[in-house]
């Protein structure tokens, strides 16, 4: 199969695919209503993210953005391509772009030979050429950004504006036509030009190629999109057109195309490329089930607030909530306890005055303790006042009841006497005038077999 036949076959095939895709768009659209509802932050697993695209278009040796070319005469030829795409996010995809076709150009009247034929001079060999024809195939990995992926005017995206760039390899075999005979009669098939016009040994070249392009994509259905694009391809070499100028220049070509993208995957999942995250968030916020849950939650919060208010309710104002008030309707200003009941305070007895504490009375202690009772303070204060006034000396005799060992009780009785001495000294009595003696349980003043007697024996006596 020659190149012309291959070109026609590819073109017819792509046109047929476009027709079939448009015919099936309506059918696919009817199944989109059965797609599952995706959730914000639900992950890429809830979407279809793979697609395949077929395109056909026109190649040209010139660029829309300008730039010099060895052959400045523009000539349009057929190009075609296959794209395999993985949508990584709402606005970004990674693609494998396969392109094929032919690029042709003419001298364009820059220089004319003696017969009036335009020609281009090779800078290395000095040979003149009138046009070139280069079949090529290239494979590129590119990234594509949907610069308008979120539509704030409509709920669903219908048009995406695209920018893409990538890098890959291009393989080609240029054919250049000599200018020695009018009508481009002499053909030279070569890559790096020589002085010979009869070299017919074809060989191919592989160079780095960097495509940069823009495009627009129309949503025909959830599964099919119509894409129009334009790509400028920059080649890392100067022999794509078969002519080497002899100084650092790079060749290029452009490709304008139209094609269909087909989403792969389950019909129950939406295509990630067409999802509008803003609309999804809006839908989740106003989801009927969610709104019912919010209303139910409001009701539960109201019930809790009412229960708390009931707990805090204090009808009689006594500071005790009704739920815990055992004596409701207490008169205002009444002092109450934790149950809300009035506290009855004993009345002070004003008829009888308390007797004055007698100095030098016995000081009593608790069981197995040498700590002074607060009830002993009046006696100790009266004793201290008398000792300071008279300057008399006093002996403190400590005693204990018969519980425990004799040695323990002897130590306990000494501690009790020292506790009394410490109090007196702290109140101003001269420590040199106080003598301490311990007798333990040896001199009881009551029967140690009874509790009453043991209480009396736990004492300190004053001896003057």
In a nutshell, what does this entry contain?
With 464 residues, this protein is α+β, with helices and mostly antiparallel strands. It is 23% helix and 31% strand. The strands form two sheets. The chain has an eight-stranded antiparallel β-barrel. The chain has a four-stranded mixed beta sheet with strand order 14-17-15-16.
Helix content: 10-25%
Distance between the termini: 144 Å
Please count the helical segments: 6
CA radius of gyration: 55 Å
Number of strands: 17
Q: How much is the average pLDDT?
A: 79
Global structural class: alpha+beta
Strand order of the largest sheet: 1-3-4-7-8-11-12-13
Q: Describe the largest sheet.
A: 8 strands, antiparallel, barrel
Order of helices and strands: HEEEEEEEEEEEEEHHEHEHEHE
- Coarse morphology: elongated
Strand content: 25-35%
What are the segments in which pLDDT stays under 50 over at least 5 consecutive residues? 9-36, 180-201, 349-354
Commentary on this structure:
This protein is an alpha+beta fold. The chain is 23% helix and 31% strand. It is built from 6 helices and 17 strands. The chain has helices at 3-31, 277-285, 288-312, 377-390, 406-426, 451-457, and strands at residues 50-60, 73-75, 77-89, 92-106, 111-112, 118-121, 128-146, 159-172, 175-178, 187-189, 205-219, 224-235, 252-264, 363-364, 394-398, 434-438, 459-463. The strands form 2 sheets. An 8-stranded antiparallel beta barrel has the order 1-3-4-7-8-11-12-13. The chain has a 4-stranded mixed β-sheet with strand order 14-17-15-16. α4 (377-390) packs across α5. The chain is elongated. It starts with a helix and ends with a strand. The relative contact order is 0.10. Mean pLDDT is 79; it is low at 9-36, 180-201 and 349-354.
